[in-house]
Each structure stands twice: as structure tokens, then as C-alpha cells.
């Protein structure tokens, strides 16, 4: 801004008093939730920083109402990847320049990439940020785009992401031109808000359900008919069990006959909500049909393909316990502090599974190939998941919540 004093122009520079940060984790449900502790760490340690999270549009709902995210920037990551697979170079070039023009007005000081792929490296480049934090040991040339790298770690992915965020301390120390207000606590862990509960939970994921959806979820439960043919007089208030059907990988899925067996074993003491997307609505129709034939649809909320991500969160939050394989809603349940029975096979729970909360992880201990990360199982009957018996799952449920709803 220019002021005039007499005839002599005096230039007065106004300096921005906060650090502008671009946080990069584009997709998907579980991965984004795994990254929320790192974003929270940044905001708790640099309270005046402005954190902008770039994410694929279908995932925006996961970050709404998050007090540690100042702005959500949607970008069509899936569209870019689709063109990349077909080598549509002109379209990719155009989309990258459009992204660069979109990010340029923010004047980012720092970009934080916890995803570590070529596409996220290109986002770092488009951000124009001079300080770029990322993971070490990445593939797809991602390392070319970062100038601060966390040492490769084999620990849980949430811890890896926080290690990237912690690089910000070094960057701030080495760049005196960054005008920051540091709020680092002595024990390196500041109290965090966990859905209204304050506590020192460095690794706890964040997901926030709007209050109006709590009422909506209760209305869904009221729609279940309490038919007397089930003879549930011994149960004063049925247990609410969330069942997350299906995953993004066929090898991670628990067989439909196992779900059926679990529901049958709990029918006299529980009501259920089945959760999943449009794919699961088609895939699990045989299960739903079998339950209808048995009359169990009267104690079942079939919400497959009928909910938004925030509505899924509201229904999960209204449950007493959730049973799920390794999929996005597992992490929503953990973020909402719900008791969870998590079923794992081809993915390693030490890397991707529950880290905080009230949970039981079940695996088929008879196998030595667990955590193979194969999307097609070479063994008959996909035994890593089919080998987890419904009796074990039922037992785990009551070990988590206590036997308040009748004998096991």
C-alpha cells in the first residue's frame, strides 16, 4: 500500500501474519481418516497456520465440520488418474495447469504430502510452495517433488503421516522468513478435541457428525418393526449392531454365509443396520433375500446404497457395536469411538488396522500368508477370511461391550 506525505511517496509493506499450508491426501475414506491426526498435529502446534486440504470431491464430506481444516479444496483426482492410465497427455497437461491456476492465489508457504505418489508430487509442484514435506522411500518419482523427507518407516500409517507433519518443525527453524505462531507443548502432544471429548490422543482419527443427523439416525431405527414372532421378551432393549458389508477388494470381504450366521445367532437380542454403497446393494442382495425369507428384515435396516458418508457416520455413531472388514467405515467407527470387531486377512492390521479405541482384531491364525495384499487369492475359498468363524465374532462382540443383552 502507498501513502503520500507531502510529495514523498512512502512504501508500507503489509506482511501476512500466518503460514499458508496445503495438505495433500487425495483419497480414499480410510486413507483420509488416517491422515486427520497429522492435520490436527499441525494445527495444534501452529495455531495461526491456515490449513487447506486438497481432496477428491467425493471425499469432501469426510472433512466437513473438522475444526482442524480451514478450507477444503476439491480436485478431480479420479478424472486425472483415468486420463493418466490412457496416456491422454494433452488433457493431463491442461488439468495440471488448471490446478496450478486454482492454487496460485493462495500463495502457499508449505505443502505437506502424506500420500507419496507421482500424482501428489505433481500437486506439490502446482502449489508453488517453496517448502514441500513428504515421505522418504516413495515410488513413482514422488521424492523429486519434496525437499524435506521423513525417514521410511514400517510402523502404522498414521504414525508415518505424523512423522511427515513433524518435519514442519525443522522447516520453520531453517526458514526464518516464515512468520509463524508456534504452539508446541512441552510433552509434544497437545490436547485434542475428539467429538467433544478432550484428551491426549495423538493417533486418534477425526470425523464429525452434524447434530441434525443424530436425529435422522434415530428416526431410521424407529422404522424397524418389533414383530412379536421373534419372541424377544427376554430383551428389554435390543442391541444395535452395525454391519459393514463389502470392501474395495474381493479378498478382504467376509463371506455372505458368515454374515448370515452371525445375524441368526443374534436375532433374539439385536437389531441391525447394514451399511455399504451401491456396489454392496447389488452384491449382497442374496443375503438380504435370505434374511427376508426368515422374517429378519423386520429387525434389519438395509441402508446399502442409500446413504451419504455423513449419514453412514450418524448410523455408526448410533450403534452399540460395529462389525466390519478392512474398509472405510471401519475407520469412521474408530474415529467415532465405537466398539469395533475388525476382520482382517490380506491386509496387515499392524499397518492399516485400529490404533486407538475399543476394538478386537480377528484374523485366521492358521495361515502364514496373512497380509499378502493380494486382490485375487490363489488359494481355494479365500481361506483367510472364510476361516474367521461367526462364533468368534459373536464372542468378540460381547467381550467388547459386556454381556448386557442376554447370555452369549
Summarize the structure in words.
- With 408 residues, the chain is an alpha/beta fold.
- The chain is built from 15 helices and 16 strands.
- The chain folds into 2 domains: 20-199, Rossmann fold (3-Layer(aba) Sandwich), CATH 3.40.50.2000; 211-401, Rossmann fold (3-Layer(aba) Sandwich), CATH 3.40.50.
- Helix 12 (328-335) links the parallel strand 14 and strand 15 (340-343).
Assembly level: single chain
CATH homologous superfamily annotation of the largest domain: Glycogen Phosphorylase B
Number of structural units classed as domains: 2
Mean pLDDT: 86
Helical coverage, percent range: 25-40%
Q: Ends: how far apart?
A: 74 Å
CATH architecture of the largest domain: 3-Layer(aba) Sandwich
Quantity of strands, as a count: 16
Largest sheet properties: 6 strands, parallel
Q: Outline, from the CA principal axes?
A: elongated
Instruction: Specify the CATH class of the largest domain.
Output: Alpha Beta
Low-confidence stretches: 1-15, 182-200
**What percent strand?**
15-25%
Strand order of the largest sheet: 5-4-3-6-7-8
Secondary-structure-derived class: alpha/beta
> Whole-number radius of gyration?
24 Å
The CATH topology of the largest domain comes to: Rossmann fold
Enumerate how many helices there are, as a single number.
Answer: 15
